[in-house]
Amino acid sequence: MSLTDILQSRYSVRGFLPKPVPQDELNEIFTAAQRSASNCNVQPWQTLVVSGEKAKAVSNAMLAEIMGGKAPYPEFEWNVKYQDAHRTRQFGSANALYSAMDIAREDKAARNMAMGRNWQFFGAPHGIFFTMDKYLGIMGAVDLGIYAQTLSLLMKERGIDSCMQGALGQFPGPVKEMFNIPEERGILFGMSFGYEDPDHAANAARTEREDLGVNVRFEA
Ligand SMILES: Cc1cc2nc3c(=O)[nH]c(=O)nc-3n(C[C@H](O)[C@H](O)[C@H](O)COP(=O)(O)O)c2cc1C
């Protein structure tokens, strides 16, 4: 598939088959992603990939915090209040997902249940935590975003789907403790990946994009 075809056909997948991606293939994908560009080639990504029993354990630990009523405590600035067109698009994406899952806007319990699936990696066999040294700030975040996008496209090329997740940076405590991530390093965001479950209702969600002129100016 060409890159253009991949971009035309991709969407965030939030329901996976339990089948894991073979380790050889993971090695190839993550090796290829090492070629990602970064500012001054600093390559700041410190990537934690969790699978199997360890994925289950960290998922349970994050869910225990959430069920215990703990408020999110991300290590980076994530609580931007979207305004105007950004807010409209934010609602559009939430609406696409909840309509696909047949969840009414006012059904808070069902929305919370759907939200909770973030910390179960949406049933995926693998989850990623994208971490970096905290002092890097916005420049590190740019590099990690580019790296994550590269990974997700390399995966899609091989028929492996994914969903990026800010949610995976919201309860960093159990992840950092379980995997000995030092205090000076933070979890920026995460991603679940694996093979799409075509029957999962969440995977019927589709989002729109603006016409080119809304986002891009060509000047000559
Ligand atoms: C940085 C980033 C964080 C995201 N965080 C979440 C998340 O926590 N949970 C979720 O379900 N989707 C998350 N998404 C997926 C977006 O909602 C999705 O990419 C957007 O609505 C566009 O839809 P599409 O990916 O299907 O084209 C995230 C995407 C990005 C790029």
Structure description:
By secondary structure, the protein is α+β, with helices and mostly antiparallel strands. The chain has one domain: NADH Oxidase (3-Layer(aba) Sandwich), CATH 3.40.109.10. The protein is built from 8 helices and 4 strands. It has a 4-stranded antiparallel beta sheet with strand order 1-2-4-3. The radius of gyration is 18 Å and the shape is globular. It starts with a helix and ends in a 5-residue tail after the last helix.
Distance between the termini: 33 Å
Bound compounds: flavin mononucleotide
Total beta-strand segments: 4
Give the overall form: globular
H-E string: HHEHHHEHEHEH
Beta content comes to: 5-15%
What is the typical, i.e. mean, pLDDT?
Answer: 97
* CATH topology (fold) name: NADH Oxidase
Strand-helix topology:
Layout: H1 3-9, H2 23-33, E1 46-51, H3 52-67, H4 84-100, H5 108-116, E2 126-133, H6 137-157, E3 161-165, H7 172-178, E4 185-194, H8 212-215
Helix pairs in contact: 2-6
This protein binds flavin mononucleotide.
Flavin mononucleotide (FMN) binds next to strand 3.
